[in-house]
Amino acid sequence: SQNIYILAIESSCDDTAAAVLKNDTLLSNIVATQEVHRKYGGVVPELASRAHQQNIVPVIHQAIDEANIDKKDISAIAFTKGPGLMGSLLVGTSFAKSLAMGLSVPLIEVNHMQAHILAHFIAEENFSKPGFPFLALTISGGHTQIVKVSNYFEMEVIGQTIDDAVGEAFDKSAKILGLPYPGGPLIDKYAKTGNHLAFKFTKPKVAGLDFSFSGLKTAVLYFIQKQVRENPNFIEENRDDICASIQYTIVEILMDKLKKAVKQTGIKEIAIGGGVSANSGIRKALYDAEAKYGWKTYVPKFEYTTDNAAMIGIVGYYKYLNNDFCDLSVTAQARYEI
Ligand code: KG4
Ligand code: ZN
Fold first, then answer.
1. What is the mean pLDDT of residues 194-221?
2. How many Cα atoms are found within 13 Å in the side-chain-facing hemisphere of 120?
């Protein structure tokens, strides 16, 4: 049968990304990360849209060049319809629509949260794919969800954050400690040499499989303020222990709910995704759970966990096989349920 070439575009937050897939195999995967937000300690939506506007053409050119294909080989354009920042989504959406029109190829809209999950299905040596049904834990700076995945497009959110995302818990805690944005990786780094039982932060009480992280951030803030009043060098002297204790609490919160989800659904296949899945604490906890509870866990290649267009492309590929195309009148959607 004929090969399918998908050009995928992702612009939902602060990364402008484009990728080309030949069937389920990645040919190129380009991400332009916007440095402009660093000094603000978080993503500034207005600046993100402008940066997407500047980056999108070079990023798409590079993706096509590196894939070594001809534009006329492209079978369809896939793009992120949502969820995300409206201004950011609009850049990718408008561009995808124009491109589909210009090249006279079909257009495929993709849900960013489904894409984080289906990233596990990009063909990759040495990585096995989860079997249906599985539980997906999507954890990043913008998302915290547990999704029951029965099939490629049969998914149900069974738990999610009611306030901050888990990545925000890392980044906001890091900010309180005076660490640069995004502080998640730094907390992870310092936690490695710290004692996770040095300080105790209470875990939130949230019903069902939902999460809450805003209380932890406040607890960290009050704790640090109090300690620094007594000892101005408290942070410097205890950095590793503080980081280890914060990370331990966050990992416990995630694992508590995951265990509950496994119990509730009877599903022991766990696939994680999102930038926070790089965290060594969560990776170790999942690894331990394999031995302890007989779970099977799946962690994709790092470049497929953070925001990227390869994951949009794999959804595009499966939708293409289903003839699931959209009209050129499609619009971006900031809130878009799975
Ligand atoms: O998926 P991602 O690149 O972007 C979105 O937010 O969608 O995730 C970025 C988030 C940030 O909050 C960052 O601090 C966090 O992932 N992160 C980590 C680690 N690496 C990235 N958090 C904890 N430990 C890490 N090793
Ligand atoms: Zn994302």
1. 97
2. 27
